[in-house]
Design a protein that fits this description.
heterodimer; A: mainly alpha; Rna Polymerase Sigma Factor, Chain: A; Arc Repressor Mutant, subunit A; 2 domains; 0% strand; B: alpha+beta; Immunoglobulin-like; eight-stranded antiparallel beta sheet
Chain lengths: 188, 264
Amino acid sequence: MSDRDLELYDAIQRGDKHALEELYEKYEKLLYSFAFKMTKNNELSEEVVQEVFIKIWTKKGIYQKKKGKFSSWILTVARNTAIDIMRKKKVQTYTLEERDSLYSEEPLTEELFEWKEDAERVREAMRKLNTNQLEVIHLFYFDAMSQQKISERLDIPLGTVKGRIRLALNHLKKHLTTIDEKGGSRDE
Amino acid sequence: MNNEKCNWLIDYFNGELSIKEKEEFEEHLKDCLECQQELAELNTLHEDLPFASEPVKPPEGMKDRVLGNVFANNETNSSNESETVEGKEEKEAERNVPFIHKNDSKRRVQKKQGSFYTIAAILFLSLVGNIYLLMEMNETADTPVEESENQTDQLIQSVALDATEVMDATGQASILENEEGRTLLVQADNLEEVSGEEAYQVWLLEDEQPYRAGTFVPSENGSGAVSFNLDSLEDVNWDTVAITLEPTPNSEVPQGDILLAAGL
């Protein structure tokens, strides 16, 4: 799967528009959904996706193999772009009503196509977290809140925010490892 | 080890530090193994967490818009961007650190350009609302500025027009000011020949509302220029210049595709 990404990326370096189109088609929904999870806004999400592909198309050599898997790299760029755009537009990360809906696990009517397995794996691990752990991960990773804001939101001392995040992430990692060991079919 | 700066890690990862703080933290990071390790751990989250996003269907027509804008960006960036900016951004991406665009103005131009692909269609839709204004405009739109001998023109702003996929043209828009007011000067090269009544039309757009701003026919070598007295549009808060090829020199709304455009 990632070999194809590299092939496409190489072709894009040579100015191959079809390669960019193929890469776009592959990542459109994943990036859009991720950007939407962060910005909760259609227009901004489209802007994020556009910025990501403008970077790929215009900044030659922006991705190199040593930077790790292409899919992780492009998601990193997407997250940073979303943060950048949200800051610029001063987007309020979210309201309380939104937060309620954030944690209700609704059955998925649509899937992320080829990312289905990845999605199921992460979601299964997330389901094993308790509400507090889930909340701190959302505030930290998807809402990209500052330490100060997280401490206010959770009403905990500033100095303990980092520890809370680490703890939640350790739990997540642990669950992911368990799932990988149990599943075993996910060899790269 | 328990440096105060270690507590900046979260805000660093989330792009919350000021430029100065960011530099300080990166300095700290060089010597702090603990922070390096924690940052590396945080960066592995990108391999997993984004997949937890609930699938959302991208809006109608997004692919065409995005790809259109991406490809329209091609030339502007490769020619205008300095090596250093490119190098810097690359370096930042490498560290997996949120980056902040230093070049705000450039971004805004890109954003503007972002909607150009759809502008032609939108312009068409807004026909009814604008027709009254445009008819009124038409009287004055093409009046070139009279040159008087002892006035000094001052360049207020100048911007390169970005080509779209439709035509491989180049252009420049400038605003000049003298005692008599402001003038928009638009030049373009590498234009395709016109046939019949066709003419190139300059538009000023305010939130995608078009205002005529000069008509011209290119010379044999594909170059053309027009000047336009901006006083007649004093009340219009336009933000974009665009050129289209029109079937006749008196289109009141753009009928052709946008060939060149820039935010101004």
